[in-house]
Design goal:
Layout lengths: L9 H23 L7 H8 L13 H23 L6 H18 L1 H10 L9 H16 L7 H21 L5 H15 L4 H7 L9
Length: about 210
Amino acid sequence: MPTSAPPSNRFERRRAETRGALVRAARQILAETGDTSASIQAIAERADVGFGSFYNHFESKAELFEVAVVDALEEFGQNFDERLAEIDDPAELVAAGFRLSARMADSHPELMQVLRRRGLGHIHSDNGLARRARRDLQVGIASGRFTTLDPTVALSALGGTLLSLVELRFARPDVDGDEAAVNLAEMVLRMLGIPPDDAHEVARRPLPDLA
């Protein structure tokens, strides 16, 4: 999960641990069923915290589940930052992002199930992967690498395609996820204005070490 500066004293550490446990419990529920009707008592029990602790951190279940989604999307974005930090070409970043996402369905199934179930409502958010994708699109447009003129519309296309890929990975495990990701990446690059031969090559460049 995303990290922040450690709390400075025992009380703050315990408070942070309780909040983190509640967020983790909510993420697990979202990943397993997507059902947010679980009672606060059930959430507290799963988190192994007292029922009364819930309201020390959240005003409602809706707030908790929203925080859980944002937390998952931020972790997703941090994975991209860590693994793709050496890539400068915006087109290669887009392609590598699709391919990494396909692999994370196996390596980070809980995280990707949250994205699958709740990601659509966060395509245009100011956090997580959306913020990073918008940044890369703007760099690509400003540099002339992408010919798309509207980064907001382009972000809609990228986000929708990515969510479709994630859905494919879980709904059709018999399909080769890596191959599907490469093909979708090539299609998206062409949509962004990359010439066909260039898009074909960029989508198939060696990925960074993802171990």
